[in-house]
């Protein structure tokens, strides 16, 4: 069974640009969450989607947005990139949203903003 | 707000040594507690969880007990192996949820033969 797939693996962008990251969950999983990982702040929750609806959102500015499609694939978008947005962005999927549905993480997309 | 504090690392142990990785938390209500592990070249994966006070989570020889009185969830293993070398993250989520995780900073464990 294929794991969570994130594309691209690496990305280099310039300040002010925007970027879209993609996540394909494990087949059958309907919930997708996004996390940002930086050396300074560690892992921080961005948002969670279930059946195309955003269920939870972390404390990030409105420049960070996401969506989920009917096939459960998800994208996140960051507009007007800042240097501080450089990070590893992790996507996680799960069957559902309860405690018996563990999160399965992808290997992440490493974004570098110059 | 919620927060998770892990002991500073990295930690280096010899094979068959006893392992303890400390984790304390601050949270409102009754969070669920988790340990996630990231092996070299792989994504984060759930190691164990506990959902209420005095619950003990266990997996692959690792154990952690949810201590509400000390707000702790320390990870232990009686005899580590080289294959346990990885980064370990303590995390919590709001009551009844498996998402919106608050993570600790993570600690790198290296086990030498």
User: Describe the biggest sheet of chain A?
Assistant: 7 strands, mixed
| Contiguous helical run count of chain B | 0
Mean pLDDT of chain A: 94
Distance between the termini of chain A: 37 Å
What order do the helices and strands of chain B follow? EEEEEEEEEEEE
- Radius of gyration of chain A equals 13 Å
Q: Which word captures the global form of chain A?
A: globular
State the end-to-end CA separation of chain B.
41 Å
**Helix count from the secondary structure assignment of chain A:** 0
Which structural category do the helix and sheet elements of chain B fall into? mainly beta
Which regions of chain B have little confidence, pLDDT < 50, spanning 5+ residues? none
- Rg of chain B (CA only): 13 Å
What's the helix and strand layout?
The complex is a heterodimer of chains A (114) and B (113).
Chain A: E1 5-7, E2 10-13, E3 19-24, E4 31-38, E5 42-50, E6 53-57, E7 64-68, E8 74-78, E9 87-94, E10 104-105, E11 109-113
Parallel strand pairs in A: 2-11
Antiparallel strand pairs in A: 1-3, 3-8, 4-5, 4-9, 5-6, 7-8, 9-10, 9-11
Chain B: E1 3-6, E2 11-14, E3 19-21, E4 23-26, E5 32-38, E6 45-50, E7 56-59, E8 62-65, E9 75-77, E10 86-93, E11 102-103, E12 107-112
Provide key terms for this protein.
heterodimer; A: about 110 residues; mainly beta; 7-stranded mixed β-sheet; 4-stranded antiparallel β-sheet; globular; B: mainly beta; 12 strands
């Amino acid at each position: 069974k294929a794991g969570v797939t994130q594309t691209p693996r690496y990305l280099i962008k310039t300040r002010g640009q925007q970027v879209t990251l993609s996540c394909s969950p494990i087949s059958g999983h309907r919930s997708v969450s996004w996390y940002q990982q930086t050396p300074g702040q560690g892992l921080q929750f961005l948002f969670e989607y279930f059946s195309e609806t955003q269920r939870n959102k972390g404390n990030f500015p409105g420049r960070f947005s996401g969506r989920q499609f009917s096939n459960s694939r998800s994208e996140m978008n960051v507009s007007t990139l800042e240097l501080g947005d450089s990070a590893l962005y992790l996507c996680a999927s799960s069957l559902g949203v309860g405690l018996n549905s563990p999160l399965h993480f992808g290997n992440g997309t490493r974004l570098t903003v110059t | 707000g919620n927060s998770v504090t892990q002991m500073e690392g990295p930690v280096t142990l010899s094979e068959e040594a006893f392992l303890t990785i400390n984790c304390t938390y601050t949270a409102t209500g009754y969070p669920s507690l988790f340990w996630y592990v990231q092996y070299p070249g792989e994504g984060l994966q759930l190691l164990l969880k506990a959902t209420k006070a005095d619950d003990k989570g266990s997996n692959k020889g690792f154990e952690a007990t949810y201590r509400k009185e000390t707000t702790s969830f320390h990870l232990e293993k009686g005899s580590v192996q080289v294959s346990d070398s990885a980064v370990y993250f303590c995390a919590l989520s709001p009551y009844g949820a498996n998402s919106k995780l608050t993570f600790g900073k993570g600690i790198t464990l290296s086990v030498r033969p």
